Amino acid sequence: MVALPPTSTEKLTFTEYCQFQPPDDYQYELFRGVLIQMPTPTTQHVNIAHFLVYQFQQAITKVGLDLIARTDTGVRTEEASSRIPDVVVCTRDLWQKLTNRKGAGIFDLAETPTLVVEVVSENWREDYIRKRAEYALINIPEYWIVDPQRQRVWVLADPDNPDGYSRQEFLADAQIKSPLFPNLTLTAAEILEPVFVEDLVRQSKVEQATLRTQLELEKQRADQENIRAEQEYLRAEQEKLRAEAAEAELAKLRAQLEGKP
User: Fold this and answer.
1) Which residues contact 210 (CB under 8 A, 6 or more apart)?
2) How far apart are CA 32 and CA 83, in angstroms?
3) Which of 11, 18, 115, 164 makes an SS bond possible with 89, Cβ 3.0 to 4.6 Å?
4) Are the beta carbons of 156 and 142 closer than 8 angstroms?
5) Number of helical H runs and strand E runs in the chain
């Protein structure tokens, strides 16, 4: 266990960082051996992260992607650097590998997430400059920067470009275009001022209950139609039998009139 005061200038190795136990309630990232205290997130910051995790999980489930979306997961970016993105999307195999490993929940080098999100707070240079370079260097395919202060969302992709990530900026009601989630229907405004995930879950349950009721009503109508069709078939069969009986009786009478036995 490594326990250092927040003001310590002693540098840590990555292994020591994985064993580091903060002496306070803050989270710490590691940048080239130096502990970086992370600002306490605002409620808006937390709401945005939870909202995006929920939306990613819905998109993953809908399309059947082999991915996992989580918060509070570390990503090693250099020999002695490790970041904690607000949201991480990775493959199930990679997440299972991390789950099975003892110690801190940090993806090591070569264990590359598919997408990471940073919600900008007071240390905006970290998200726009340092982390952008670090995430590109370890080839994270997609990096979102959500900036509530500037009211914009950046989607960065293609880290192999000569100049690093290519950038798309989304403002207000512009719909986000994500290479990883092309069917995602979210606007920048919906991300920057998200509704509570609990409300989305409640709404989803109401919609599912309504759909189940509609399906049950449809089933009842179909059953009633089947019963009516069966009844019509039985009536038709009865009419056919009566007609055949009448025809046989008529043939018998004709035979009697003609003197045939």
Assistant:
1) none
2) 11
3) 115
4) yes
5) 7, 11
